[in-house]
Amino acid sequence: MKINILTLFPNMFDGFLNESIIKRARDKKLVDINVHNIRDYTSDKHKHVDDTPYGGGAGMLLKCEPIFNAIESIKKENTKVIMLTPEGEKFNQKLAYSLSKEEDIILLCGHYEGFDERIKSIVDKEISIGDYILTGGELPAMVVTDSVTRLIKGVIEEESHLNDSFNNDLLDYPQYTKPQEFRGMKVPDILLSGDHKKIDEWRENESVKKTEEKRPDLIKSSKEHKRKKIGNYSLIDDNKKIRMFDLKINSSYNFIPKKIKKEEVAGISKVILVEPTFVEAIAKKNINKKMDILLKQIAIVLNDETDDEGAEYVLGEIDRLENIIISNYSNYLSDAYIGLIKNKLKMLKDEINLKMMMKARVVDYENERGRRL
Ligand SMILES: C[S@@+](CC[C@H](N)C(=O)[O-])C[C@H]1O[C@@H](n2cnc3c(N)ncnc32)[C@H](O)[C@@H]1O
After folding, report:
1. Which end of the chain is more exposed for a tag (fewer CB within 10 A), N or C?
2. What is the number of structural domains in the chain?
3. Which of 280, 277, 203, 237 is nearest to 211 (CA)?
């Protein structure tokens, strides 16, 4: 991906572009970030980029000419031109995701009192980073560049941003690192239990709880309300009233509801999910169930020194599950999620293969020793 930044103050980007994750992403050529000085695109002797507003008023405005010149010389067919302005669409994680899929973007930084209104005619999108006024668009351009870059494939581990706050309209779950106890504050026992199914459930619940406490607006504004509460799904009726139902799940995404109060929804015998986010939640739940069964089988095989047939069987089951996931679920889930599951399955296969290989070596060694004695 290419990010072009148009600014009057290119030096402000020096530190930002040359440290940490952004530097590494540039070094690895995962992102190409170019900073252009708008002043280089002026045509007058004094390199004027701003002038006083017609009708009077305080401050200076950025002129059309240098900005039109700059954009027209940098822009390619697929370039999206983005103006950073307090009037724009409020920037959020969803917007960051959608920008990270672009091939080429231009981020236009304003300064002084802002832009001549006619500049908006060559802009595809206006973005604000929040309801406050900064002196210039440089910090907003860094904010957008930073959050978009970390979503580009290969920049950070995909699992990290899948779990980030605002992904799925939920805040991140609480996290802890060493030591287990600090000044009397203990890490929750569940995180030390090693039971990954329980840990995932705990994290999902904490995520929902934290969002309800700190950012209920995220949940209210989201049609995906409560979708994280597995087993408890909401339906939104025409009056946008949210009702909670417990649903018995079958595999085809047609649901046979149970425990629906008759007076609420009379005569419903089946629910067919069309909302993609619900389907996604159910698809993930079904995959998790299958993974759980598989993990139990694998644990038996890994703990049993004698069972070669079991290992072969489980390797077959891993392939079978991968095929099922690809054919039944990949339409409903992101490539990133499917990629994660495939990686997990591959790691499990590697572990079983390694164990079989080690065991074969031990057998060879013992046979050899037996022959020598
Ligand atoms: C001082 S501001 C201009 C504010 C403008 N007079 C107004 O009231 O909307 C100068 C420049 O900083 C940038 N800027 C300031 N606050 C911003 C924000 N919250 N989001 C995005 N850009 C911002 C914009 O590029 C803007 O043109």
Report:
1. C
2. 4
3. 203
Q: Which of 12, 107, 133, 147 to mutate to test the pocket of ligand 1 (most atoms within 8 A of CB)?
A: 133
Range of the domain at 257: 223-273
188 prior amide bond cis, ω within 30: no
Q: Which residues carry out catalysis?
A: 86, 113, 150, 164
Residues 248, 330 within the same domain: no
pTM across the whole model: 0.63
Please tell me if the CB atom of residue 114 comes closer than 6 angstroms to any atom of ligand 1.
yes
Name the E strands within 50-167.
50-51, 61-62, 79-90, 104-109, 125-128
Q: Is 143 in the same domain as 104?
A: yes
What are the residues whose beta carbons fall under 8 Å from the beta carbon of 86, sequence distance 6 or more?
128, 131, 132, 133
* Same-domain pairing of 7 and 151: yes
- The Cα–Cα gap between 313 and 307 comes to 10
Q: How far apart are the C-alpha atoms of 168 and 337, rounded to whole Å?
A: 13
- Please, which pLDDT band fits residue 3 given cuts at 50, 70 and 90? very high
140/89 same-domain check: yes
Let me know: does 199 contact 149? Beta carbons within 8 Å: no
Segment 63-77, tens digit of pLDDT: 999 999 999 999 999
